[in-house]
Write a structure and sequence with these properties.
The chain is α/β, with parallel strands linked by helices. The protein has 13 helices and 23 strands. A hairpin with a 5-residue loop joins strand 11 (238-242) and strand 12. Helix 10 (382-388) crosses helix 12 (425-447), helix 11 crosses helix 12 (425-447) and helix 12 (425-447) crosses helix 13. The longest helix is centred in the middle third of the chain and has 31 residues, at 202-232. It is globular and about 70 Å long.
């Protein structure tokens, strides 16, 4: 019987990983290729081509292609969002500017709220009003919608977010506005709050809708590009995307509702850790996913990953759920409960103006990458420090396909950190690793101790390109 396969491909900030499973024999193959930040779909296709070749499999044997990615999150963080507009009930056009009256650091008088994804001059009010039960107080004035459509056309808007007061109770006005805009502006992508997040609290619903509208054109183009290329290569498999909640949905659904995949990559890691924990008989697990750019930790209780609807995207480096609240854009969709920090293998070590050694949150990523990659990077990273300390084999990185240059790593650490600090190379490299470890220990305490759980009652499952290198030290620190 010919083999049938399913493949999972994850695009990270530094590497793109693929896993191929033979549905008949259960045999698993893996491969890792450098990510291509300027064209993420290229890394996707490189990984797929490579893993099929290594397994001597063909595209017509694929049944499922499952994709997890941080492309939606990165679009927000990097400001690569669409030229979008916001439509709400007349008199409430300042909703995005006002936002929530909270700050991530209570006594930080210099804190500035995140800039709205849609500026005030592209926020429009239309005449209509519903009461909290959904009863119509003021009928929708379709002429006001037509006038807004004229403005949108003049501004060359590519995406629109619609969030009316109390539309969770009665979506009729939002649907009518959407219908009018679709007839007048057929090329514009439209997101309605009653479809994305039909629940109370106007700003949280509006923020979720706006995030979806701002990333929809980018994600749609990205996924459709992958789909077209796969079909051209003869891949007839079902194409699925990981959701932030740990489930999957189709490419077409992801194009319409990309807000549900903003934590796609990190969520898939927690699901895998939960599965492994259950197989090994460990119901309580702390997962540690340390990649090239960030480290993510999640809590699995009684065999089940924790899910929340209280989180933000695009916030300051730190815990994305709980700590740092108020520094990003709230999203009210189900997501695996995670704490994420800017500490990965590619996190850059530097000396601040006070003469203290710091690590992250900036990352060398895949381009130019750590100094030891020999691809143009000159800044020392956690990977460079691990190499200098002898924790990485320079001749067997990426299975021997990517040799590391220890001289370049040593030079970067000396010039950027050791020399300014007056320390020797090994002391500095050890300091870099210890600082990264401390940041991850703090994240693991946030997900466990701060929530009333004793880490000694849990098993840690570490993965990601850099996770296992640091796992033993973190386990000791967490007792």
């Amino acid at each position: 019987m010919p083999s049938l396969y399913r493949v999972g491909i994850d695009i990270g900030g530094t590497f793109t990983d693929a896993t191929l499973i033979d549905e008949v024999s259960g045999r698993t193959s893996i491969c890792k290729v450098p990510s291509t930040p300027d064209s993420p779909e290229k890394g996707f296709l490189d990984a797929l081509t490579r893993i099929l070749k290594d397994a001597d499999a063909s595209t017509d044997q694929l049944r499922y292609v499952v994709h997890s990615t941080t492309v939606a999150t990165n679009a927000i963080i990097q400001g690569k969002t669409a030229e979008a507009a916001f439509i709400t009930t007349e008199g409430f056009s300042d909703m995005l500017e006002i936002a929530l009256q909270i700050r991530p650091s209570l006594y930080d008088l210099m804190f500035e709220k995140p800039k709205p994804l849609i500026p005030r001059n592209r926020c429009y009010g239309v005449t209509e009003r519903l009461d909290p039960s959904g009863k119509v107080l003021t009928p929708l004035d379709e002429l006001s919608v037509t006038k807004v459509a004229e403005y949108l056309k003049a501004e060359k808007i590519s995406s629109v977010a619609i969030c009316l007061l109390h539309s969770y109770a009665n979506p009729a006005h939002e649907k009518k506005i959407s219908s009018i805009l679709q007839s007048l502006l057929p090329e514009v992508l439209i997101t309605t709050s009653s479809d994305i997040a039909p629940e109370m609290k106007e700003y949280l619903r509006a923020s979720t809708t706006v995030v979806n509208a701002c990333i929809a054109p980018f994600v749609s183009e990205y996924l459709s590009g992958i789909e077209q290329t796969l079909r051209a290569e003869g891949v007839d498999a079902e194409l699925l995307v990981m959701q932030s909640s740990g489930g999957v949905y189709t490419f077409s659904a992801a194009m319409e509702k990309p807000v549900f995949m903003v934590e796609s990559g990190p969520a898939s890691g927690v699901i895998a850790a939960s599965h492994i924990g259950n197989i090994l008989g460990h119901k309580n697990v702390i997962s540690l996913d340390m990649g090239g750019t960030t480290a993510k930790t999640g809590l699995i209780l009684d065999g089940t990953p924790q899910v929340t609807k209280d989180y933000e995207v695009g916030g300051q480096a730190g815990a994305i759920h709980g700590a740092g609240k108020g520094s990003g854009y709230p999203i009210r969709t189900p997501v695996i409960d995670l704490v994420e920090i800017g500490a990965g293998g590619g996190s850059i070590a530097w000396v601040d103006t006070g003469g203290a050694l710091r690590v992250g949150p900036s990352s060398a990523g895949a381009d130019p990458g750590p100094a030891c990659y020999g691809t143009g990077g000159t800044k020392p990273t956690v990977t460079d420090a691990n190499l200098v300390l002898g924790r990485l084999n320079p001749d067997y990185f990426l299975g021997g396909s990517m040799p590391l240059d220890i001289d370049l790593a040593t030079k970067a650490i000396y010039e950027e950190c050791a020399s300014p600090l007056g320390l020797d190379i090994l002391e500095t490299a050890n300091g870099i690793v210890e600082i990264a470890n401390l940041a991850m220990v703090n994240a693991m305490r946030l997900i466990s101790v701060r929530r009333g759980y004793d880490p000694r009652d849990f098993v840690m499952i570490a993965f990601g390109g850099a996770g296992p290198v640091h796992a033993n030290r973190l386990a000791i620190e967490m007792d």
